Every structure is written in C-alpha cells, then in structure tokens.
Amino acid sequence: MAKLTAPSMTPGPRKRLSDELHALHRRGGWPSVRELARAVGSGVASSSRIHDAFTKPRLPAWGLVEVLVAELACRVPGGAPADQEVKRFHDLWDAAAADPFPEVAAALKVASKAAADGDHSEAIRLGTQLLTVSELAPDDPLSLEIRHNLADWRGEAGDANGAAAALANVVQDRSRVLGPDHTDTLESREELANWSGEAGDANGAAAALADLVQDRTRVLGANHPDTLTARNNAAYWRGEAGDAAGAAAAFADLVRDRTRVQGPDHTGTLVARDGLARWRGEAGDAAGAATALADLVQDRTRVQGPDHPDTLTTRHNAAWWRGEAGDAAGAATAFADLVQDWTRLQGPTHPDTFDTRDGLARWRGEAGDAAGAATAFADLVQDRTRVQGPHHPDTLTTRHNAAHWRGEAGDAAGAATAFADLVQDWTRLQGPDHPDTLDARDAFAHWRGEAGDAAGAATAFADLVQDRTRLQGPHHPDTVASREHLSHWKI
Question: Contact at 8 Å (CB) between 300 and 289?
Fold first, then answer.
C-alpha cells in the first residue's frame, strides 16, 4: 500500500476531482504507482505520470484519469461498476477543465492589467512565469490561453514576427485540442493574421482573414459580432495590401451591416465608418474622407464624449485628411488643438501625444514653415529617444521626418548626412530589405543629389532600383518612382 499526498489546492472543481481520485485510491487499497502502471498496461502510463496525476495541482489528461479510474474501480469490493465510475469522473474532469485555478486566473489578471497599462514587457514576464510555476498541462485550455496572450503581448511590445510565429503554434495546438471550429481557435487564427500583417505580409493577412470570415460565418453566423470584427480586419488588410478601393467597398458594406445589426451608435459601427473614410481617402477621395471624418467626430463626441480616446483619434484622422485635401494650414491648426488635449488627458510623453505632435510638425511644414517643421521634428526626436528609446520604430520614423524637413528648410547636406545615418540604423535593426530601409535609401539618394552630388545620387538610385525590382517587382509604385528619380539624376 502507498498513500499518496494530495496537492494543496483551493476549493473548486479541480480540488473536487483530486479529492475524489484520492478517495477512490483509498477504497481500492492504495495500490502503488508502480503497481498501477503495470496494471493499466505497458506503455499506457508511466509511474511518474500516475504519480503526478495524484500529487500535482495541474489537471491530468482525461485519458490518464479514465484508465486509472477504471482500474481502481475494479479493486473496490462491492463498489460501483467501472463504467459508471468512469462516467462520474468524466463529469468531474469536465467541470475541472472548464474552471481555471483561482490562483492562475488571478495571476493572469495581473499580467493582463500590466498589458492594458502598456507595460508589455512586464506582462510577458508575468505570463512566462505563470506558465512555469502553475504546472498547467501543455494542452490545458488555460495554458493555451496564456500562450495566446503571451504571443499577443510580444507583438504589442514590438516583435510582430515573434508574435506571428508563436501564434502559428497556438493555432495548431488549439485546433488539435479544442477543434478547428472552436471560438478560441478562431480567435488565435485572427490574431495570427493580424500579426502576420504587422510583420509585413499584408497579402497573407488579407487572405487569411477572408478565410476566417467564411469560417466564422459558417460557425457563428453572418451577424455575430466576431464575424463582423473579422470582416473589419479583412477589409483593413485588403487596403494595406494595396487594394484601397476594395477596402473602401468592403467597409461600406460593413457599415451598412453593423448599422442594421448593432445600430448606428455602436462602437463597431463607428470603427467601420472610420475605416471607410480612411480607405476612401487612400483610394483618392481625400475631400470625401475629410468630410466623413468630420461627421464622425461629431457622432463620437455625442456618443463617447469629447475626451474619449476614440474621439481624439478620429479628430487626428480628420485633421490629417483635411491636410491631404489641400488645407494644410487648417490641418496644422487642428493638430495644434489636439496636441493640447492629448497632453491634458494622457500627458506629454504618451504615444498618442507624440503622434499628434508628429502630425502638427508635418502639416506646419506643408503649410510653408519648413524651418518650423524641422525644429519641431528635431524636438520630437529627442523626446521619443528619451521615452521610447533610440531604436524604437517611431523614433526612427521621426528621424526620417526631421531629416526630410531639414532638407526642405535649405540644409540639403545636413539632410543627406542624417539619412546616411538612418540607413545604417534601419539596416542594422530591420535588415537591408525592409521597406523603411529602402525608403531611407531613397531619401538619402535624393538629398545627396540636392546637396550637389548628382553622380552619387544617380549611383545610389541605380542600386536602389535593382533592389526594389528584386523585392517589390518592376511595376511596384516605389520601384517606378525610384526609376524616375534615377532618370532625373543620371548624367
């Protein structure tokens, strides 16, 4: 006989399962784990797995519980039939599987709170620690949920490629454990597509989300909120993949359906209207985008309030498209007001405040004040470097803008030097084939020519045309533009 020590667990379905398993072990005469391993058959379950099923707090696999219960039930004189006990224990196991450890759930809440507050590094640390110490089985639904969240937080922390790779594994495991049509599996597929898009594969994201829309429609119905969300994401990545007109049409259909299903003031309807306006602008109708967003600002203010982040974001977009429609001075004024409101509500170092300062500087330059734009961008580079770090993509993008307006303000040589440094940093951080690296090389070549080195500019553009043709194809707009620049500077 070998009484096994029960794990320390808080009251709940998992403790009831553990308690009943130990009670059955006692009634069956406390056979040792070695004896049980021999009894269930060679290769079915090792003695260590059986020991863990009795002594560890994690949920054992049902297959292991099933064979143990069947064997133990046969050892209880006058006890319930084995098949009856197996059915009883399956009900206990099913309830336990649906109920996470209270400690794990509480710890997951702490990690999720850190992520919601923007501290994704802390969320990743806590989530990784939780997976290690919780002793959850790898296929436990809660373990899969934590892995899903960890992948998402990894993306939010700036590692879109890592997030996509991790989610690809989660999708496989959730499909195997929960089934391909389970809502959690579909959720992981959606996040995988989104992070794949963020990692640079917009076409792949659009195709994956189009497939997801079909599956969600089949499983959940056309009017389910998750189906509508998938349509929103599919339309967005369709636009990012280069089909702005198609994205605008898809968002127009979505606005109609969200209005019918959820109402005109629902958050999802307002989000779809934002997407429709944005891609309408990207498809060439900047004035229509500006007008639509001005109307949306009014509705968001009425529904969500003037200080809601969504209202402020829509004001940002409305100001941007106002500038794109030709009113640079009006855009600059709108961004100046918005900087004040973001600073008041979120503080001077919040990413949204920085983004709005970026818009203000840009449209200040477009309105004719190139020197003021260059100074504003230079200040923003310092603040982003201090808060977000010198290698953050937003810092590098702001350096790009600062260098551009430095050149527009008359310092072509200084702009060329700044872009040369930026090309080195983008290459080191993102690789030589990243679109941002190619854009920086384009700008470097341009300002090199403007600074008087026409031959150097022509050589740089010739190299860039070769690389863009290899990476983006000969007919890509960026390749065509670089060829035109080469013709301009070629002697």
Answer: no
Q: How far apart are CA 106 and CA 35, in angstroms?
A: 38
Summarised one tens digit per residue, pLDDT across range 435-483 is 899 999 999 999 999 999 999 999 999 999 999 999 989 998 899 999 9
Say which amino acid occupies 378: A
Residues contacting 76, CB < 8 A, separation 6+ = 24, 27, 28
Task: Report DSSP state, residue 180.
Answer: T
Question: Which amino acid is located at 460 in the chain?
Answer: A
List the chain residues with pLDDT less than 70.
1-2, 8-10, 42, 99-105, 491
Q: Is 295 exposed, middle or buried (0-12, 13-18, 19+ CB in 10 A)?
A: middle
Q: What percent of the chain has pLDDT over 90?
A: 69
CB 164 within 8 A of CB 193: no
The predicted model scores a pTM of: 0.73
Q: How far apart are CA 263 and CA 269, in angstroms?
A: 7
User: What sign does the dihedral 132-137-138-139 (CA atoms) show?
Assistant: negative
**What's the rounded Cα separation, in Å, for the pair 265 and 43?**
60
